[in-house]
């Protein structure tokens, strides 16, 4: 049975009624201890492993490890599966390139039960005094290995601007994904600025990524990076902001696709909602980073419902004037909703694909011989 996604605000605020105030479920997002004697559900246990390369993680000590990073460190080589019991894992996690073909599974089947979270931001000082973390270093989870799969997990960064008024580097990444053939099924990504960093290890690697039935929320550029990535049947939620009193509050997508890459971000069959007033969010802006001045950001949004929070008249904006969005590769096809602009007053602000052009923007075209959608759990 489908359950509505619980906002990150419900995840952070535990006061009674906070979830109901958002029109969402009142069920807490952070799981507490459960009486269930089978914390790993149908996925076995340390006494009855599903395979010799399956490890069990439980913060209450009923598994092989109590932290995700400890299990990742122990799982040397390829093909390991981590089964995570319900709980909150407050830590940073790095899956390096030599640990290919890894699978992480939330044992309960509900991503709200298993939360990997930390609270570093780009401007957070490092403990050793060597500077600040920077955007990439702020990531709660960094996934560098090829062939990674996650199911029924939440990746979060709960750093808040209001708690750190003296920090200007407010990027706070929940997960940075860099490996080829990285797939996420029924996962949540919670943060504010730069929540989901869908990237690659270097410019020459076109790191294909797939996100199926996922939930992503944030405010500024909260889906960004240079990976060719497909977001199928995903829900993107733009948050309200109390620190600003005028539009725009932020941008949903900020792709930085390499110029040589024929594929960027593809959003298909999804929806974009918002807690903000009508028209207070832009759908996207292009990111041309200083490390790659030849980038040509690419975003295609097709057959997706765009809520009233998206500026229907001018849904795109520049990040830098020297790289106007009109020179990039942005396109839409058969979108719906108030944010899609049924009666577009300025057509040049909403580049529409023809039916023939849209035929080149499918999950099959973007992912090639890799078909993670055929194994949807």
General description of the model:
Strand 1 (54-57), helix 3 and strand 2 (81-84) form a beta-alpha-beta unit. It contains six helices and 25 strands. The strands form three sheets. A ten-stranded parallel sheet has the order 1-2-5-8-11-14-17-20-23-25. It has an eight-stranded parallel sheet with strand order 3-6-9-12-15-18-21-24, with no helix packed on it. It is mainly beta.
Specify the helix fraction band.
Answer: under 10%
Number of strands: 25
Radius of gyration: 20 Å
Shape: globular
What integer is the average pLDDT?
91
In the predicted model, the low-confidence regions spanning at least 5 consecutive residues are 1-34
> What does the main sheet amount to?
10 strands, parallel
Count of helical stretches: 6
Portion of residues in beta strands equals 25-35%
- Which strand order do you get reading across the main beta sheet? 1-2-5-8-11-14-17-20-23-25
Structural class: mainly beta
Q: How far is the N terminus from the C terminus? A: 14 Å
- Name the assembly state: single chain
